[in-house]
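Worked problem 6 (solution included).
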Amino acid sequence: MAEPPRKRAPVKAFISYSNRDSELLNQLLRHLQPLVREELLDLHHDQTLESGADWTVELYRMLSESQIVLFLVSPDSLASAFVEREVAQALSHQESKRIVPIVLRPCDWFSSPLAKFMALPAGGKPVTTWENRDEAFADITRGLRKLVDSLDQERDRSQLPSRHEGPVNSIAISADGRRVVSAGEDGTAIVWDALTLQPLFVLGHGEPVTAVSLTEDGQRAVSRSADSIARVWDLETGEPGNIQTDLPQPDVPSNVRTSSAVLPGGRYSVAAQPDGLKLLDLTSGTIIRSLNFGSETPTAVAVTPDGRRAIWGSSLGNVGAWPLDTSVARPLPEGRDRLRLAYLAVLESPELWRVLETWDESALSGIGAQLAIPPEEDVLETLTGRHQNIMLPPLWAAWMETLHRSKLAKAPGKP
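Solution. The predicted structure is:
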């Protein structure tokens, strides 16, 4: 499958070399052609000069405008006064450039100004000493691809805000200490490198982000905003996950802020809302349990390391505990009865459509708890009583049977 078009301009790279290494340069250029075709690199050297150009002026301009400067190191390049001037020019602007020595032939380059820079191929082993030179040039190509990726990431981070435009409402730190996530009144959550405190990603909500928590493995963040939307984010890519949960939203005073916490294992999260606590299944994006507070508002929540209790604080200054029970499963009917259960559940509560999209069995078996049906009642019988004379739509049933055939296997003895 073809790669999608590159959205950013290629990185300009200047190549400085001795003319006596022209054959090795041409071999390198052939290996770098995939990076040029993919618009990762835009290569400049004396062979790209136009006829009649003042080559000294043009080469100086090319080097000045390039983000990467490749020095092809050999005895001849070290002896070249012109290459020496190009080295000096690059070093005078090294804050804005990546300087990469590419060692072509054995020479005493370790005493040169280039010795402090990481060289290619790997370990600075000269190209001509490799048994297979194609392997050496392939190693150089891979190294430059990684460098371009690194520059792209730096360019993206340079465009990120260095602070929130307003108060910070919540902060969470990953268990491995690599990531910090802050939730801001400006409608964003920012993922930071914990060591350097450089921003990595901005996670947008639109409304003030009131709380953020991280999964135990440090791979995902759960953010909550003032409009009662909970979102799950991938902390390695900054991309939103498949789950966005719109929590039931009562009238919320503008000065009320809420909180959330993720249970060990990363599947469940507890959210503190103005009307109480909600236990969320992050896999299906559904609420599986609720604890109503009445006139009191929970304002903060944390989960014990064993995942068995949520400790909450309230608007009245109270601190309490809520036992967490994620074992809400009830036996599921088989075949058409399971389809009827799912269909009636959506009629009862349209947001349960997410359960049907994923057809997650643990979420399906928790439908009774989500609909607040007492444990002693049969869920299907209760829903059938509430929606009498409702027939299962044949086309919908056929579609679901096609999508989830293995999970709708008929039980023995059933029609």
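Discussion: Residues 168-323 form a domain with the Methylamine Dehydrogenase; Chain H fold (CATH 2.130.10.10).
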